Amino acid sequence: MDLPTLWFGLLAFFFIGYFVLDGFDFGVGMSIPFLGRDVRGPNDTDRRVLINTIGPIWDLNETWVIVAGAAMFAAFPEWYATLFSGFYLVFLVILLALILRGVSFEYRHQRPEIAWKRRFDRMIVIGSAVPAFLWGLVFANVVRGVPLDAGFNYTGTVFDLFSPYAVLGGLTTLLLFFTHGVVFVSLKTSGDIRERARQLAGRSGLLTIVVAAVFLVWTTVSFGSVWSGILSAVAAVTLVAGWLANQRKAEGWSFTFLAATIAFAVLSLFVSLVPDVMPATNDPANSLTIANASSSGYTLTLMSWVALAFVPLILGYQAFTYWVFRKRVSRASITGEPEPSGPAASGSRVSA
């Protein structure tokens, strides 16, 4: 395997890490209107429980996109330039949404007023849903291809990025991340909110299976290869397995299967691109490939040694962080109040 191909694979690994980890962060944020109780006073305990499930780790998960972007910039500068210049409005919206979400996590608890907290809750939902949709849109356009000139510049408009296939890709990641996040809530909480999260994951999981199946079939038939088709089939199997595990109240297995679904789905998209990194729909001669988009051999060799030294350290630190914050979050851990139980708890009203 040559160095450009190796770094194409490493880039896929970094994006898989980002979508698996920040994906459930997005899902938890989007779940606030569904799992957070109606706030009728200073007690918004359920929403605080939701936010605290990702409180110690959300910013660590988000650093994966920085690593992925930096790796693309260094290893495939032509791809980076074409992608970020052609899709700059979409990436700007993603960046603003991520900033909005991060600010909301930090400022929500700074004042006791319910109206103050409600505003930041809405910002968390928006800051989670927008990137979850737009990342799927971006990768669907990369797989489908876009019009490029001889200088590898994007010649379309921002509206051209919202094709039916790309929108379906965005809906797929939106629903997949939502279900992934709700399962994470059931894995990390106890009591009433854990059960409500499991039930919500069962409902959203069915919709996710349908939408994801259509997207993966469309991708395989129109843009895929034998290997990408096999990976898509594995992703479909793990998605169904994750839904079944959730129905059996096996949250750990459900979360693992959904993480595998995201991993195999992203890997199938990267495999379907080979040997391109961004196909040109107007003229195949203008396509960016792994070969013509990569950096020099010296640069890739230096990057390989750096990655060999630091990637294991990053993975070890992340694993240690998850181990430290492995315990479930409960209402009692937030305020000391007991968990609700009985029919009143199971029939509790939820609202945005």
TrEMBL record:
InterPro entries: Cyt-d_oxidase_su2. Its main location: membrane. GO terms for cellular component: cytochrome complex; plasma membrane. GO terms for biological process: aerobic electron transport chain. One of its GO terms (molecular function) is electron transfer activity. It comes from the Bacteria. Pfam families: Cyt_bd_oxida_II. It is a multi-pass membrane protein. Belongs to the cytochrome ubiquinol oxidase subunit 2 family. NCBIfam families: cydB. This is Cytochrome d ubiquinol oxidase subunit II. It comes from Subtercola boreus.
